[in-house]
Amino acid sequence: MAEVGFGNILLDFSDRPVVSNEIKGSVGAGNLVVTLPDEDVPVLVKINDSWLCSVNLSKNLKRIGQNTFANTAYQNHPKNSLTFDLEVAMGKITFRDK
Predict the structure, then answer these.
(1) At 79, is the pLDDT very low, low, confident or very high (cuts 50, 70, 90)?
(2) How many other CB atoms sit within 10 Å of the CB of residue 73?
């Protein structure tokens, strides 16, 4: 669980996970930066956003539904995935590659 009211937080998931992980978070007026693992690790991102926020996704994440994004590895084999369930009000969320 990660919560950012004001300020910045960096979550580094660049190491390969051994098991599935679900990360829940909320961003008020701050910034959340997530470093993703290698492209072959399945990643699913769900973002509940507002018109006051900014979301920047890495080039590996593609829209698969409304406010839902995944990389190719997730679309091919969703087992042992990193799942992000995020909410953002006025802040900024950035996903970047390793």
Answers:
(1) confident
(2) 18
Sheet holding 54-56, edge to edge: 8-12, 31-35, 92-96, 54-56
Type of residue found at 25: G
Q: What is the pLDDT of residues 49-67, one digit of tens each?
A: 888 889 999 999 999 999 9
The model's pTM is 0.89
C-alpha of 82 from chain center: 9
Report the side by side order of strands in the sheet with 21-27.
Answer: 2-4, 21-27, 82-88, 43-48, 68-70, 62-65
What does the alpha-carbon distance between residue 58 and residue 17 come to, in Å, rounded to a whole number? Answer: 19
Q: Residue 75 phi/psi, 5° resolution?
A: -65, -30
